[in-house]
Every structure is written in C-alpha cells, then in structure tokens.
Design goal:
It is built from 12 helices and 12 strands. With 335 residues, it is an alpha+beta fold. The protein has 3 domains: 148 residues, no CATH class; 86 residues, SH3 type barrels, CATH 2.30.30.520; 80 residues, Alpha-Beta Plaits (2-Layer Sandwich). The longest helix is centred in the last third of the chain and has 17 residues.
Length: 335
C-alpha cells in the first residue's frame, strides 16, 4: 500500500484534530517543516528534501479552517530572523483556548466528560498523536501531552457528503433539493458531480449542469436525500483544483467593511481572519474599522449578526441589509 493511498483515506477532521493537538503540545510552537514531517495527515505525503509545495498549500488552507473554527492559532517570528517565513513558528496558546473560569460542571456532567476522555485516549487518534509527539521530542522539540480539555470544535461532515462521494467514484448523475438563501422552498437540481472540496471549513460540490455550465453547491444547503442516477462520462481535468481556484477568486473580490468595538470578541475574531485589513480609525472613536473578505454573504451575515452590537456593517449594502434582517428577526422572536 503506497503512502499516498494511505494519506488519501485520512479524513480531513482527523488531520485538523492532529494539527490542533500538535500545536497545543508545545509552548514554543512548531515550524512548518516540523508540522509537515510529524503530524498525522501531512507526514504520510511529506518528502524529506523534496518538493512539498502541494503539502504546504494544504497546510495554509488548514490554518484558515482552524481559525474559522475559532481556534486561536498564532505565528511567532524566529528571534534574530524576523520576516523569514520558513522559520516562522506556529502555536495555539493554551490560555486562549482553555474553558472560561466561570464555567463549571455538575458531578453527572463530569462523569460523562471522563467517559468521553477515555474514548479519546483509547481511539486511533491518540495513537497517532503519541507517535507524532515522540517524533517531535526526537527532533529536540519540547512537547507536553495535551489534556482532554482542549478538544477542538470540528464540524461533522454534511449528510450529503457520503452519497455524493459515492456518486463521484462511480461517475453517476445525482439529484438533490437545494435551498438557496432568500427562497421559500428548495428546488430540485440534477448535476454531474466533478469534485468535493473543503474551503474555509465548509464542504462544496463542484458539478456540471445539463447545459454544460459549472456550478458550486454548498453542501449545507442540500436539504434532502441525494439520489444517484445513471452513469455518465466526466471530462478529464483537475476539477478539485479548479473549484478551489474559483472559490478563491470569489473570496478575493468579495469584501465587506465593518466597524467593531475595540477589544471585543468580534474585534479579536474578525481581525484574525485570513486577509483582514485594518482601516484608519475615524477621528474621536476607539472603534476599529476592518475590511473582510468572504465567499458567501449569507454565511458572513449569520456570523456578524451573532456578534450583536459589537459589529456595525458599513458595506456592501446587501450584507448590511442581511445582518439587519437577522437582528430584527431575533428581536421579534424574543419580544
């Protein structure tokens, strides 16, 4: 069995989980080379002294996904060589990822957490994590066993993932109900699956419609069963790379300007998003103005509305209207 085939069967959730554990296990942080050569999901494809450009791009996407999940991943410059990206160290500070001091658990809740901890310790992830920690120590990296209190908040795969993945392997046409934002009901879509890709923590389907147009569907908006149909031919090509490139282009050109309350949760989280720009502050105010990149305005509106009064959307108008609508609906529901 080749290392590439073994790596292909490692779920993305397991790779992200292993990355979080490794970055929590050392106070000083890890270099990119140490991560790629030791962490489950990367080390299987790592080529010592070889070309690891694809693996490095995977790591860059994983960093964004982890931050989108709320994990405070930090970068630390190497002393005496600031700005050298190859010597940057990555870490997750334990203090920023611990449970708040005002949270406590009852006796029954503690029992359930201990049972869950036993499952984590005995699972296959723990074995891989221990092997990675041993290798890090062999490299001279000081690493402590992470405690179970730092379990990452990883999303489960969408229900549509498995049937779409099976249809991809067999080159089958699929049908599914798809609910677009702002519509009252779902519409049936029939497409040829081309690739399943994860972008910024969310799964997308790249597919071809009957007229030859390529479309990207967010799996969370597939609201019913995926039905497989007849077999079909798929044009050759790196459809996954093309889908990720298209999503990246949407991200690049879609920007939102927001004002956030200084030192608030919104300011901390939004300022650490990939590509966020800090704009000049207005005279006489301590609030910060940020420029954010996004792919889906409705998903961003959900996130921004969750910060309540800590965020004020300036532009674009459709995003501002979407956030206001969510806040008004919340106020009406609790009237």
């Amino acid at each position: 069995m080749s290392s590439s085939s073994a790596a292909a069967r490692i779920p993305v959730e397991e790779r992200l989980f292993s990355l979080v554990l490794a970055l929590l296990a050392t106070e000083s942080g890890l270099t990119k080379n140490e991560i790629l050569s030791t962490v489950q999901g990367y080390r299987q494809r790592y080529k010592p002294g070889g070309d690891n450009a694809n693996l490095e791009r995977q790591f860059e996407r994983d960093k964004d996904d982890i931050r989108d999940l709320g994990v405070p991943l930090e970068t630390v410059d190497s002393p005496g060589d600031a700005g050298n990206n190859q010597l940057l160290r990555y870490r997750i500070p334990r203090g920023a990822y611990e449970l708040p001091h005002d949270i406590s658990f009852s006796r029954d809740e503690t029992t359930l957490l201990n049972l869950a901890a036993m499952v984590w310790r005995e699972g296959s992830l723990s074995g891989e994590s221990r092997r990675a920690l041993l290798k890090l120590r062999s490299l001279g990296v000081t690493a402590d066993e992470p405690v179970i209190g730092y379990a990452p908040r990883l999303r489960l795969r969408d229900a549509a993932f498995e049937p779409l993945s099976a249809a991809l392997e067999k080159h089958l046409v699929v049908r599914f109900p798809y609910l677009k934002p702002g519509e009252d009901g779902a519409h049936e879509r029939e497409v040829i699956p081309l690739a399943l890709v994860q972008y910024q923590g969310r799964w997308h389907l790249s597919a071809e419609e009957g007229n030859g147009d390529h479309k990207t569907f967010l799996l969370r908006r597939i609201v019913g069963p995926v039905m497989a149909g007849k077999a079909t031919s798929v044009r050759p090509g790196d459809h996954a790379a093309a889908a990720l490139t298209a999503l990246e282009e949407v991200w690049e050109r879609s920007v939102a300007d927001v004002v956030v309350v200084s030192d608030s949760d919104a300011a901390t989280r939004l300022a650490n998003r990939r590509g966020t720009e800090r704009l000049p502050r207005s005279a006489g105010t301590a609030d910060e103005q940020l420029r954010l990149h996004f792919v889906d305005a409705n998903i961003l509106a959900d996130e921004l509305a969750g910060f309540g009064p800590e965020v004020l959307v300036l532009s674009p108008p459709e995003l501002r209207a979407a956030v206001i609508a969510r806040l008004e609906r919340t106020a009406a529901d609790h009237a």
